[in-house]
């Protein structure tokens, strides 16, 4: 019985965990840093296979936004290390390729995010998938598929 954890860093991201017969997802916007740390401490005893999306700031985001994003990403890595959870980084291109989720010509960012949300909802029909949890769920499922 394995556990798979997917993390989509950033203020609008989240994390998702797939257990043998259950799945759950959490939006970072609804959790404090203490809650995130406590959750990872609690789940560490299950030795989850863990993937965190390896993303970076984008040109034009501004220094403050880039700093905030980098700070949040570093906190998440620190929580994983502190909880003793080994993890790997995965690029968005790599895990999205696993689902055939390529940006379509002329497609807006929100339209692409809507396709991610629809796929996550299809894969996990018992959950209420949001934009904040969709990519985390897809990353966790990608992790599961790579480690089964």
Q: Give helix and strand order, one letter per element, not per position.
A: EEEHEHEHHH
The overall pLDDT, averaged over residues, is 90
The CATH homologous superfamily name equals Ribonuclease H-like superfamily/Ribonuclease H
Query: Gyration radius, to the nearest Å?
Result: 15 Å
Overall outline:
globular
List how many beta strands DSSP finds: 5
Strand content: 15-25%
Largest sheet: 5 strands, mixed
Your description of this structure?
The chain has 148 residues and is an alpha/beta fold. The protein has a single domain (4-147), classed as Nucleotidyltransferase, domain 5 (2-Layer Sandwich). Helices cover 47% and strands 16% of the residues. It has five helices and five strands, in the order βββαβαβααα. It has a five-stranded mixed β-sheet. A hairpin with a 4-residue loop joins strand 2 (14-18) and strand 3. Helix 1 (33-43) runs parallel beside helix 2 and helix 4 (109-123) crosses helix 5. The longest helix is centred in the middle third of the chain and has 20 residues, at 63-82. The N and C termini lie close together (10 Å). The mean pLDDT is 90.
